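Q: I'm teaching a short session on how sequence maps to structure, and I want students to see two examples side by side rather than one. Could you give me a first protein with its sequence written out and its structure tokens following it? Keep the formatting plain so it prints cleanly on a handout.
A: Of course. Example one:
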Amino acid sequence: MSTTPRTPAGTPPAPGPADDDPQPPPVVVGADGSECGLRAVRWAAEEAVRRDAPLRIVHATPHLGHRGVAGSPAADLPRARGATAQAYTLARHTAPSVAVSTEVVPGEPVQALLHAAEDAQLVVLGITTTGAADEMVLASVAQKVAARSPRPVVVVPRSRPGGTGSRPHVAVLGLGDREDDEPVAVFAAEEALRAGRPLLVLHTRADDGGAWAADSSRWAERWPDLRATHSPVPGPTGGRVLAAACPTPLMSMSAGHGGLLHRPLDGLHRWLLRHCTSPMAFVPPVHRLTGEEPREEIIAVG
């Protein structure tokens, strides 16, 4: 249920496709009014340009519609509208050609974003962690959405000094079941091609000799215009992955199987969320895309 206009009052509508052209699914970004949230909005607007897609800005307000509790609707609604208006302005300045809409949704952020993801092609979220263990409580929304989303989720960390220059995009393979490498490879290759960047493929599984993803010639056949290089990262730890990958414009990997037994994400993923200073894309594993339950033998203590 939307409680704000699709665009803030007094702003002209963004240009969009002709009425008889089907509109592609939107890029969805969560906006909470924070600096990190606005950084995610900027990244999402730029990504919407690359995908030629509309941008949908979502702000969830748990207390909206509930009376007699702290954070009443009388206070929450203006605050929410202010946050979405600020995000809308930033998105329009960043990507004037993109059709932008805003929505204030009553309810918890995780559920609101998962619901929005159903009709999206990508979900983008900001994250504030800097490596301190106690800061992971601030990342709970990003963890839970990435662990359960039916669409890829890009988590954008707070701004760091310096840039990525000509550094490649990165695909990390081997962090899920073998079949999970396929959607990660496809997502990472398409992202690199859209951005005009090379791709570095990190192989973390030692026994992938017979898999297509370990064969550079197979990559060249599938994506002849992609400049891809391959590197092994045996015995992957968070530190080894970051040393091999970062800084990078985007690091893509399987979201793993953290949704099982209500774990927010697998241990390596949680560590990377705490320490990675580059945007990270979590691609849903195959079992989530097909609606099947993950196999029991993959359960591990985080």
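Q: Perfect. Now a second example for contrast.
A: Example two:
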Amino acid sequence: MPETTCCRLHQPPLQNTAHLQQAQTTLEQAVHCQGWGLHSGRPATVRLVPAAPDTGIRLQRLDMADTPAFRLTHDCIISSPLATVAASPLTPGLTVATIEHLMAALHACEVDNLLIQLDGPELPILDGCSRRFMSLLEEAGRSGQAAPRRSIEVLRPVHVEGRHGAHASLLPAHQADTLDLSVDIDFPAPAIGQQSFQMVLSQETFAQEIAPCRTFVNHQDIDALQAQGLALGGSLDNALVIQHDRVLNPDGLRFDNECVRHKMLDTVGDLYCTGFRLSARFEGHRTGHALNSQLLHALFASTENWRFSDGSPPVMPSPG
């Protein structure tokens, strides 16, 4: 498989100053990145384009003629256990897959408004984590906008349960305007086993503790996945491959608990599919994409569960 390439337009660092924290932001200029789809195994290009205030995160498929961009909301996410997949409410059958690693980077870097353009149905997997997306955002730069940021405040606990004892919760934040997360996993493979990790989300903590952590797979599951048309672009360059008590990647683990850190990365991306930052505490046990999506639907099922930080009515924007 050819090496992934990224086009970098310039290299100023992301601004992280106080005057940007309460204002909406977008990128200073467009950037694009090329790679391979994890599941399709096909070449994939994504272009990140600055967007106007209050437009949110929007997705557009350029390979399908005359299909408009759509705004990402939790209602766009469709059931998929192995990736976060968004379906357009404007164009039947149009989906965009494997968005979670980019969404996690956008969440951590506090990018509010952006147009994401793709030449196919899946984002490039790059090196299986968010590290390259973070670099791309740093090189694009971030620009403050003349509009206040709205976040979502969780007002009371919301809880969902999944299969085999999995569960996830959103609770009111311990401290205003923060998202702190606690995730634990339990896998039968001794190389993974039981792991846990906690973090308060910020650009710095995400970049240092979470962004480098790769997606992972059990070696024994690969044939079955590929028979279903999944993981066709997977390799040791973009995934941790676990075989019972061994890690097959020549470079080994980046952290002793890299697997649970990657689960947290996925969660940070999944939670940003609301299009807004959350002021909340997240707790997840053996959670995954489907359960995270279920949790967001439970949150927005009642206006007693949440409110916007600026006091505006608790009504999510239209995805159109």
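Q: What should students look for in example two?
A: Point them to this: Residues 129 and 261 are 10 Å apart (CA to CA). Also worth mentioning: Residues 1-20 have pLDDT under 50 and may be disordered.
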